[in-house]
Amino acid sequence: MAHINRENGVAAGRLDPTQVADNFTDLHPEYDGHEALVAADRCYFCHDAPCMTACPTSIDIPLFIRQIATGTPEAAAKTILNQNILGGMCARVCPTETLCEEVCVRETAEGKPVEIGRLQRYATDTLMASNTHPFTRADKTGKSVAVVGAGPAGLSCAHRLAMLGHDVVVFEARAKGGGLNEFGIAAYKSTNDFAQRELDWLLSIGGIEIRYGQSLGDGITLDALQSDFDAVFLGMGLSAVNALGMDGEDKDNVSDAVDFIAELRQASDLTSLPVGRRVVVIGGGMTAIDAGVQAKLLGAEDVTIVYRRGQEAMAASSFEQELAQQKGVTLICNATPVGVEGNGSLTGVTFAYTETQNGKLVTLDETFTLPADQLFKAIGQKLGDTPDALTLEGGKIKVDDAQRTSAGGVWAGGDCASGGDDLTVTAVAEGRDAAMDIHTSLMGAS
Amino acid sequence: MADLTSNFLGISSPNPFWLASAPPTDKEYNVRRAFEAGWGGVVWKTLGMEGPPVVNVNGPRYGAIHGADRRLLGLNNIELITDRPLEVNLAEMTRVKKDYPDHALIASVMVPCEEAAWKEIIPRIAETGCDGFELNFGCPHGMAERGMGSAVGQVPEYIEMVTRWCKEATDLPVIVKLTPNITNILMPAQAAKDGGADAVSLINTINSITSVNLDAMSPEPMIDGKGTHGGYCGPAVKPIALNMVAEIARNPGTHGLPISGIGGVTTWRDAAEFMALGAGNVQACTAAMTYGFKVVQEMISGLSQWMDEQGYNSIDEIVGRAVPNVTDWQYLNLNHVTKARISQDDCIKCGRCFAACEDTSHQAITMSEDRVFDVKDDECVACNLCVNVCPVEGCITMETIAPGAMDERTGKPVVDEYANWTTHPNNPSAAAAE
User: Fold this and answer.
1) What's residue B161's pLDDT?
2) Of all helices (H) and strands (E), which one includes residue B64?
3) Using CA atoms, how far apart are residues A208 and A159, in angstroms rounded to an integer?
């Protein structure tokens, strides 16, 4: 049996390096050629395929699977990337079980869909391994566009604009691009530095410059971008997090789940990353699951995710919930935090049970305390400060069907914009669609 | 329990499943294991003249067509007759027949088209104790270039002549194996009959190129950059074989001539179909080459179960049972009307029926916003394509419209009386309807 460090508190090296490495291997390992052919054979090449309709980027799934089946995965990749330039990452992180694979007719027929996500990964990985870029830039238009944020929305928008012949400058707050692909996704979904490799590959189309360490209000302003560029696309995501708003939230070892996830993704040695012996995660979305599961995989003895509503209301997909349970994470639903325990350091979190009465969540009197030496908050992210020129809607930048904001010449997409469902694939679709509208707008005006 | 014993041409075997003359029947080691696995008989791989045996290529001998999941649907080969010395084969056949007296052992033979050659080798082979002969007039590659195999089988006069020589040389049953590489199977079949053949077996392999190597720009199988046509077999050729068997069985001139059915027999059902169309037994090969000798056990259990379910007691009861229902197009009942019916409970909403109907011709299937597929009776010509492309067996079926009910497509009630093209008013040479 491998060594386990059961020390109380938050400590590094709870598991030996081999165990950690094993825990963080690819969640869905890549297909080899034979597996891909067998999986592709199962596709029925449906008419007006339901999977294609379910895909936010409308990838022609039956076509790309047929291209794999006929021995042309590179052509399959082009079919995918033409609709979704981050098709490689989406193949890894898309909740396919609630999108394309959920509506696959073989799910209906046999309860076992064609493994569309893994096939997509096979195609895109094959193409990327050949170090080629399937798209070329159109003749230069002489127009330049500013993109704020080098996450999925910004990169998708930038690539499409560059392809259409525009020059693009991307302003990225962090020192690295990729956005949530780089900082906000569980490590076992994006192994071998994939987000950076995909970013480099995407940029190889040319015409895109990234300026790091700059964000709205820090080095650049929307006004300046509007005057310096022909159009502006905002895809800076959600930079702030929601707080519990209770005493004790400032205790040691109480932190935001997104920071833990980012730190973990950037760690060069996972055994050096400290984690609690008993970890509590508050929240019910993908972030809560990613934090909880990774804490467990780092060697936390007990990990409990506590969600205030019923399990059916969790934003995390059932696949993600099952994954958490499979990894030994406990899910407690219908409980809301009412106290953070401990003098200085955290010792436990107290919860009160909840119940939905007449459609309203009601906190009950009965409470319980979970011993904890680390608490992660995963109760949602929100938009950071935005320029006054932008109208907000539901806490996000209001956009119309073409991703136009209320400010002239400014488009927005991804998590910072209204609509969408905070998925990588939706952000990619919005970035792409904004680019098409920017293009129409710029070229129509000339 | 149905009796599967076969008594084809008076040759008894425990069941009607024989292994065709091919690599699996090339030697004692194989044939013994085939019999142990359950095969009722074998046609020993074709024997040639005494003397130095033929040689095979030393590169690939087979080409293939695959279906989903790389299932082998069609196989072609450029192998020749046995490349082992005649004496070795004869000694082995003698030993095997002695140890398996209840199993059928047929000798396939191919020698040059000379009377002396046939009359010399036939009695010599008979000494092995074999139960009969199969004259290989079918092999379409290699041997045909030397004036044997299908080169003989494509000339009815030669078939008749050689068959007669063989009948004169032996009292054992003589089966003539026919090549499908002709335009009308009745002519070689008739020739065999006229020459005194006890039976015909068919089909031998079909001339084919299975694929082209697009890097080397050569047919496959490729031998040092070149390829040649080979003999095609396997499940893909079954429809061609069934038709040829049925033609011989229903043609007045050849009706009653015993037939050994060959061509893509892979399951019990394939065998039952061949026999229903007139084959007294079947020969399989590709199935054994693909899955091994054990595959016969499913054929035995399946045929037995089906016969029990249908109340058939013996093989004789099924042989030729479908032949009376094989007819010419002109006699099909034009007043018989069917319409496609889609079971919504079974439908998985793939839309393949819609795409097929829409893009093929008839636009007789509708698709709703929520992917419900329905048949438009006023457009449905009952072509059956939707049934064939549907991935769920039994989901789409053809419903017969009862006489008197309206055919929405023609706007006329369905007529009860049988009527065919020969009397149809649109037929310029129609006989006056009385």
Assistant:
1) 97
2) strand B62-66
3) 8
pLDDT at position A345 is 87
CA angle, corner A375, sides to A371 and A376, nearest 5?
150
Question: Does any domain span residue B293?
Answer: yes
| B256 & B185 share domain | yes
* Residue B432 pLDDT class (50, 70, 90 cuts): low
Q: Which of B113, B130, B139, B233 is catalytic?
A: B139
Angle between helices B115-126 and B156-169 (to 10 degrees): 40
Co-location of A305 and A363 in the same domain: yes
The pLDDT, as a whole number, for residue A446 is 47
Chain A contact for B165 (CB, 8 A cutoff)? no
CB A285 within 8 A of CB A316: yes
**Do both B343 and B419 map to the same domain?**
yes
Residues A46 and A174 grouped into a single domain = no
Q: How many domains are contained in chain B? A: 2
pLDDT bucket at B423, cuts 50 / 70 / 90 = very high
Backbone φ, ψ for residue B106 (5° rounding) = -110, 140
Pair A70, A149 in one domain = no
pLDDT band at residue B23, thresholds of 50, 70 and 90?
A: very high
* A247 lies in the same domain as A285: yes
Residue B430 lies in a domain: no
Active site annotation includes B139:
yes
Print the domain residue range for A47.
33-129
- Cβ neighbours for B46, distance < 8 A, ≥ 6 positions apart: B21, B81, B82, B108, B109, B110, B136, B139
Taking CA–CA distances from B370, the nearest residue in chain A reads: A50
* CA pair distance B286, B432, nearest whole angstrom: 51
Which residue among B325, B354, B380 closes a domain? B325
Note whether B348 contacts A108, CB cutoff 8 Å. Answer: yes
- Tens digits of per-residue pLDDT, B410-419? 999 999 999 9
Residues in chain A: 446
Residue A144, pLDDT score: 98
Comparing C-alpha atoms, which of B197, B176, B203 is closest to residue B274? B203
Minimal Cα–Cα distance from A436 to chain B, Å?
28
Which of A46, A50, A108 has its CB closest to that of B352? A46
Give me the residue from A45, A47, A106 closest to B354, CB to CB: A47
What does the DSSP 8-state code read for residue B417?
S
Q: What is the pLDDT of residue A344?
A: 82
Cite the beta strand spans of B319-364 per DSSP E: 338-342
Residue A77, both tokens: 């990749």
- Under-70 pLDDT residues of chain A: 1-3, 445-446
User: Which residues of chain B lie closer than 8 angstroms to A102, CB-CB?
Assistant: none
The domain of B400 spans 329-423
**Within a domain: A316:** yes
Contacts of B70 in chain A (CB under 8 A): 37, 41
Length of chain B: 434
Chain B residue with Cα closest to A46: B350
Domain boundary (A70, A105, A129) is at A129
φ, ψ of residue A400 to 5 degrees: the values are -95, -170
**CATH number, position A54:** 1.10.1060.10
Domain presence at residue B340: yes
Helix axes B238-250, B186-194, angle to 10 degrees: 50
Instruction: Closest CB to B352: pick one of A44, A50, A108.
Output: A44
ipTM of this model?
0.85
| B282-315 burial code (b ≥16 CB/10 A, e <16) | bbbbbbbbeeebebbeebbebbbebbeeeebeeb
Give the tens place of pLDDT for each residue, B304-331.
999 999 999 999 999 999 999 999 999 9
Model confidence at B142, pLDDT cuts 50, 70, 90, reads: confident
Q: Is residue B277 in some structural domain?
A: yes
B146 has a pLDDT exceeding 50: yes
Burial class (CB in 10 A: 0-12, 13-18, 19+), B337: buried
